[in-house]
């Protein structure tokens, strides 16, 4: 039987919000958390929250993506394990393999599992073997004119629209909707070049597009003893450019459909012998029929909503499974109570295509609190929005025993949330949370297209911003310039 080294230190191979989350989980497990950072992140909160930190280079981004530097930092710090979080190297099988070669524990699935399931066409074939329904697909298109011809034939057979996808894509990237034969012929070359640039893999495939489906995903956990459980389903249908904005747990599907989706996810996980945390994703059409979409072999941004409704700390279970321990939760003990909603508060301008507000400084940061509020973030007053990294500031997660209670609590939290300096997604969410379709919980992936009026929200009043800055300055300086 495989032996596992004792883990006392965990290297967190990431930055920002998720690095803070991982450090906290490691520390709660009685482990020392080691942060890594590039020069632009030297004052980032994750560096100070960790028990120790290792500088890995000037950056930006390239050192977080440098596997050799990550392994070097783990050895330098005396860490026994590496947690990649999400993004950066989280789904790169080469990091998992490098950890194995270096005698380090990779906190996630094996390199071979990541490699296998990271190929969307192989993952799809495995789903079919496991008996899961799949959307009609083309298989990998051959390069050049032969691929264009095969794509056109697929479109003629199944009809339009179709989804043109990169084999190595993920996280909403590498996906194009194509509505006509002419558009398909013109888009293939561009999509191939973009996939090659983004993923170093230009291979493409096609799937029949579903109109207005709901996007749901099932959180799974597996250990080395053959135990595999699910933690319910999440609804992540509200998206922009195939990237999630709002996440909900449970899925808002009828119970019979959610149970069937979760059973399918478990069947898939068992078929591939999945170990550690992962997410099996599905599309559900208006008739309640569901189809396998993909599997993500990592922790998800939206894991918070599942933790809130189940009470199960997913990251701590990841650490324990990686250390060779058996899952301490049976499927019978898992149940979802109430509803949780997560919104990603980004430094972006929704009215300008969600363009990032890079380089601006947070002059005022007043966050909401009270019952049912969870904040996972790295922002603070005086924080400068980096130009080098993503625009996520904080994840707001709210809980309510009933759906309408969660929605009203979310509305209250957004009303009380003040970030002055950069434009953020907060005013857009204030508009969204009052919209009737959202409040009914009946939204699907076409939600934002149907509701362009959500972007007509009023800009933050300049007077309110001025007053907030003044109050902040008084608090910071302990002096009121207008006092007699």
Structure report:
The protein is of the alpha+beta class and 484 residues long. It folds into three domains: 9-107, Rossmann fold; 136-208, Dna Ligase, domain 1, CATH 3.30.1490.20; 214-462, D-amino Acid Aminotransferase, Chain A, domain 1, CATH 3.30.470.20. It is 36% helix and 25% strand. It is built from 16 helices and 23 strands. The chain has a five-stranded parallel β-sheet with strand order 3-2-1-4-5. A four-stranded antiparallel β-sheet has the order 6-9-7-8, with helices on one face. Strands 11-10-15-16 form a four-stranded antiparallel β-sheet, sandwiched between helices. A hairpin with a 5-residue loop joins strand 15 and strand 16 (290-296). Helix 7 (144-158) crosses helix 8 and helix 12 (403-416) packs antiparallel against helix 13. The protein is globular. The chain starts with 8 loop residues before the first strand and ends in a 7-residue tail after the last helix.
CATH topology of the largest domain: D-amino Acid Aminotransferase, Chain A, domain 1
Low-confidence stretches: none
Question: How many beta strands in the DSSP annotation?
Answer: 23
Class based on secondary structure composition and strand pairing: alpha+beta
Q: How would you state the average pLDDT, rounded? A: 94
Number of helices: 16
Q: Largest sheet, if any?
A: 5 strands, parallel
Q: Which architecture of the largest domain per CATH?
A: 2-Layer Sandwich
Terminus-to-terminus distance: 77 Å
Radius of gyration: 23 Å
* The first-level CATH class name of the largest domain: Alpha Beta
Shape: globular
CATH superfamily heading of the largest domain: ATP-grasp fold, B domain
Number of domains: 3
Helix-residue proportion: 25-40%
- Which strands sit side by side, in order, in the main sheet? 3-2-1-4-5
